[in-house]
Amino acid sequence: MLALMKAQPAVLQRYLDVQARQLAEAMVENQQQVHITLPDRIVCTADPAGDSKPVSIPPREREQIVGSLLDRLSHQDLKVMVNFQLADLERSGSKPVVVAASLLRFATAHHLVHAMLPAGRNISYTTGEGEEIPAIPASNGTAPGSAITAVTDAIAEADQSLDGDGRGELQVPYVPAARLFYLPQWVAFDEQGHLLVASVDEAEAYLASMQHYIRVLHIAVGLAPYVVADPEYQQKRYGVLGQLVNQGRQLARFQTQDIIQTIQRRAGKKDLNRGLSLSLPYFDDQQLVMRTLDFEIIPSGRIMFVPAFVVRAAHQEQAKVAQDTRLNYSTRKYLLAQLKMLERAFDISQSN
User: Among residues 12, 32, 266, 352, which one has the fewest Cβ atoms lying within 10 Å of its Cβ?
Assistant: First the structure.
């Protein structure tokens, strides 16, 4: 398909790129309707020995509107409708229409992967024991960061690509912990779980950005499954998927620690004597989203708070989670670790 695209005259390639950009943006934004216009002519073969003369496409076959009034009223997914419309055109009896639709599909998927998503660093992840997704950043040789380095500080690095001309230091705006990941601008936690940004809200915004990134890649695959063979797709998916899983787990752990501190603070003020329920956040490795485990610690009523209630509830939830086959192994593993953290924080026998 790439060879066929390159066989088109430059003006037709540019035209298809413009249409692809419009179509990609409509799909990502899930607009209600999008208007597609096929080119007025197309080269139907990439074979140098074949006929490379552009073939005309009749005007009545060029104009395509995806998303009728009925579709909008029934809230149909534009991504599905675009796929159906292009598939219908590719079954057309007119070869120029078939080629134009196939090229538009290719150009749209290419734009989604190559143009809509930022590229990142060359990184490597390792896989935890028994896990499937590589999400633990491997050291890339960067020196450990200073204890007084702020997240926004510029770090001086030797630039090995320069040939001793006195310009061998490169200023980079990310701390070493962030530069272990594919997109350091979306790293909110270091390997110890320390918050690198100003607030949890900002960390959640970074997570949402990575989820959107993965969603765009999924849209590209849904439109053109062969895009998975594209090295650019593979690199971006590998880089962002590992970062998303890692940072999602760190966010859940950080929020668990915050919940523990809140309970301890409120218990010290005798503010938990009317019941206590928890919504413990965790990261779902299968759906790539944050979820909550809701459970009751103390039923509503005038019951004095005792730390042992938290220990008992956390222990009971560990037994349930360990047998919950709806969660994959790695999700259960990290959720159990959070419940264990909660249990230990209120286990007086261990604290002594």
Answer: 352
